[in-house]
Amino acid sequence: MRLTDRVFIVGSGGLGFGLSHESDCNVYLVNGQTEMALIDAGVGLEPHRMVENIAAEGLEMEKLKYVFLTHAHADHAGGCRYWKDNFGITVMGSPAAAQFVRGGDEAGISLGSAKAAGIYPADYRFRNCEVGAELCEGDVRHVGDCELRVLETPGHSMGSLSYLMSAGNRTHLFSGDTVFHGGKILLTNVYDCDLQAYIRSIDKLASLSIDTLLPGHLCVAIGDGQTHLKKAAECLARMTIPPNAL
């Protein structure tokens, strides 16, 4: 489904648009004309549904070169191995995400707790995958003629990243699970969810100027995306915590 001139949503599960497996995050495709990238990889269950969505948009799979991870939770990174094995893409993410993905580290991504909570099937396994590049604050990567700038936004999880993309006259923010539509956030009861780091990340994002907010779940904001970042920051200014997405 086309969202803007350069961005499609090709995967989205039960906490989104129902385009692919129910455990998938929102998976976005950046079309840089000469090459393409995915923002996040989905959970890795029924990934052919995303391939079918890409083909239905008339996009050429041979141009798919990269997966940019926002973080390593299974709904975002579990599909990396599929995209690597079948399309030869290069996976990129933070050093922490890279460590978890390379090792297939289920404890590191709190998969056991998530299974116990019913978020994933009991027999689900997180497949390890090679990671081709580690990304840090301020790094700039190009996908064809689209430019993505890396923002470190920990809080929801260790090593969470957001990506600020300039394309044409529109600025997009892929915020992962840091800030959602309506200024919501996603605090969970896992070892690496850090409220104070989260607060600093919200303040960082609220200082931006964006047009389009593309979060890891729930609704997107094609226009006036900055208002959703400001809503989260305004809660903090009132000494309260933004509402949780779940």
Q: Indicate the low-confidence ranges by residue numbers.
A: none
Let me know the CATH homologous superfamily.
Answer: Ribonuclease Z/Hydroxyacylglutathione hydrolase-like
CATH architecture assignment:
4-Layer Sandwich
Look at the structure and give the mean pLDDT. Answer: 97
Order of helices and strands: EEEHEHHEHHEEEEEHEH
CATH topology, by name, is Metallo-beta-lactamase, Chain A
Q: What composes the largest sheet?
A: 6 strands, mixed
Structural class by helix and strand composition: alpha/beta
Rg, Å, rounded: 16 Å
State the share of residues found in helices, binned by percent: 10-25%
Strand order of the largest sheet: 1-2-3-4-5-6
What count of helical segments does DSSP give?
A: 7
What is the class in the CATH system?
Answer: Alpha Beta
Q: Can you describe this structure?
A:
- With 246 residues, the chain is of the alpha/beta class.
- The protein has one domain (7-237): 4-Layer Sandwich (Metallo-beta-lactamase, Chain A), CATH 3.60.15.
- It is built from seven helices and eleven strands.
- The protein has a six-stranded mixed sheet.
- The mean pLDDT is 97.
